[in-house]
């Protein structure tokens, strides 16, 4: 499929790279393609970034048949632009699409489209410390139909946003509490798909945590409220007695690409990483035995987010004295260094534009 | 707040009332209002039905922060237009909004807006047998922001669609099977909110049921896979030994307005209705004892949908010989009769335009 390109005649002013916030500024162009049942994906094009027209009956506005991805492009000191494991994101998008009854995309084709888009908007890739170009591919149902069924039409779009650090406070360790009213998901639900409904469903818990003075939610499994699953919208890792533990993927946990990369990176360093179910009680028990050395979340937006404390059943726990742990920092420095080209990419994760 | 009205200059041709399908045709006008944090709802207007403009970064397209309602207006033999328990829908919408961190609407105001809209498009309210005007109020997040948080801007819209029967086969009893891979929701999730994510999450199970030759899914609870919760996107009722049983509302089940009306109607007839948890094993046991007399679903779109059979663990069960039951038919006739003005409204459920 050919990609038609319509360039913006007057480019937008670029934001100050040293004062970028997350997800509010968008570049000059975007990629769009449409899907029609029986015809497949068609009309691939790069056009000026701007509003889209939707029928008020478009199914996405009613039934949330939608999937997204989050990935980044980085500028190296030499001025090269590079991606971090981009094909992992498109592969995950197709797994999410399958769960949400959304047609598969051609992963190679959309990565090619992404490269063309980033090349066109390359002056938007920031190079100030800690910055990157956030990439948001997403797909949603557009049938103007208000009965409940799988849509016959979709739009796939990629938009780009130059971003600073995801958390305004940077790598400041967050305090989390165990969510005890709301559930994120359950086995057989949509927890392992990157679909909108998971995020909308979590907002009430996020607001409650903030109201109660916590930055983050520790999610337990929805069925038994026993097993640790995620922290906020990130995967979670514990350093316990010199080993690393992260909850295993068994259908309810988002298979994070940063999660996977952290596991592989730690193993490349000779560290032991165990993927298994872990209950909150076991965790608290380890804490009381002084075994919990570091706790951190992982995700594309923040790479790693250190967790300094946990409130559970009236007890205030503190990890590594509430400071960022040695490995948390080292993982961040290594991954962000690889991503921005200041650390050697020994693992073959970088794809140059 | 005043509602500004912009009328369509050229009205659209109306569809043939005798060949209406569900949810594909929309009337000449729609109602829209906007919400801005700190300012509240504003710019209420009735405008010609047509496409809306959204930022591609609009949060609804990424995080599914969205809620909808479904209700109907009917034309009586005298040509009057009337609604069925409309305030119940707007009250439920506000409960859904609260769960999804969407601002509350002024229920009286939006009902007034709806009445003005329906009055303007009154020639679209069909009067052929079995037809009605389906009303779809919905609200969604519009902030152009790709971080995960509650939106600061929303659109509330009402669109109208003249409809025939929801199921093309009419009151033909459906066969259902017990969904054993996918889950709909769990306690603490969004199951009792009428939010998009619940519906997108259910599509895969719906497609699987259809592929396996069933019209409907019987959903068990997501935690233990034991308790009967809903059928497809409807509430479920059983007539057992002369009494009626429906699963109790305890956070995972949509509090259907038709469900509530059926309970109240049956009780007004002197029937016993029990709201309680019921396991699939107890149901099967009742079936084997010959106690299951009728099974039906309830919802706004179809009013009641008779269930003629169930496949579970290799057993093919049949209810009332696969035919619509006496009470199922009587409930449909009474409710639809009230709605369309051919049966006396003893219960005070009808609101005239």
Automatic annotation (TrEMBL), chains A, B:
<dbReference type="InterPro" id="IPR043132">
    <property type="entry name" value="BCAT-like_C"/>
</dbReference>
<comment type="pathway">
    <text>Amino-acid biosynthesis; L-leucine biosynthesis; L-leucine from 3-methyl-2-oxobutanoate: step 4/4.</text>
</comment>
<dbReference type="GO" id="GO:0052654">
    <property type="term" value="F:L-leucine-2-oxoglutarate transaminase activity"/>
</dbReference>
<comment type="pathway">
    <text>Amino-acid biosynthesis; L-valine biosynthesis; L-valine from pyruvate: step 4/4.</text>
</comment>
<keyword id="KW-0663">Pyridoxal phosphate</keyword>
<keyword id="KW-0100">Branched-chain amino acid biosynthesis</keyword>
<dbReference type="InterPro" id="IPR033939">
    <property type="entry name" value="BCAT_family"/>
</dbReference>
<dbReference type="InterPro" id="IPR001544">
    <property type="entry name" value="Aminotrans_IV"/>
</dbReference>
<dbReference type="GO" id="GO:0009099">
    <property type="term" value="P:L-valine biosynthetic process"/>
</dbReference>
<dbReference type="InterPro" id="IPR036038">
    <property type="entry name" value="Aminotransferase-like"/>
</dbReference>
<keyword id="KW-0032">Aminotransferase</keyword>
<dbReference type="GO" id="GO:0009098">
    <property type="term" value="P:L-leucine biosynthetic process"/>
</dbReference>
<protein>
    <recommendedName>
        <fullName>Branched-chain-amino-acid aminotransferase</fullName>
        <ecNumber>2.6.1.42</ecNumber>
    </recommendedName>
</protein>
<keyword id="KW-0028">Amino-acid biosynthesis</keyword>
<dbReference type="GO" id="GO:0052656">
    <property type="term" value="F:L-isoleucine-2-oxoglutarate transaminase activity"/>
</dbReference>
<dbReference type="InterPro" id="IPR005786">
    <property type="entry name" value="B_amino_transII"/>
</dbReference>
<comment type="similarity">
    <text>Belongs to the class-IV pyridoxal-phosphate-dependent aminotransferase family.</text>
</comment>
<keyword id="KW-0808">Transferase</keyword>
<dbReference type="Pfam" id="PF01063">
    <property type="entry name" value="Aminotran_4"/>
</dbReference>
<dbReference type="GO" id="GO:0052655">
    <property type="term" value="F:L-valine-2-oxoglutarate transaminase activity"/>
</dbReference>
<dbReference type="InterPro" id="IPR018300">
    <property type="entry name" value="Aminotrans_IV_CS"/>
</dbReference>
<feature type="modified residue" description="N6-(pyridoxal phosphate)lysine">
    <location>
        <position position="194"/>
    </location>
</feature>
<dbReference type="GO" id="GO:0009097">
    <property type="term" value="P:isoleucine biosynthetic process"/>
</dbReference>
<dbReference type="InterPro" id="IPR043131">
    <property type="entry name" value="BCAT-like_N"/>
</dbReference>
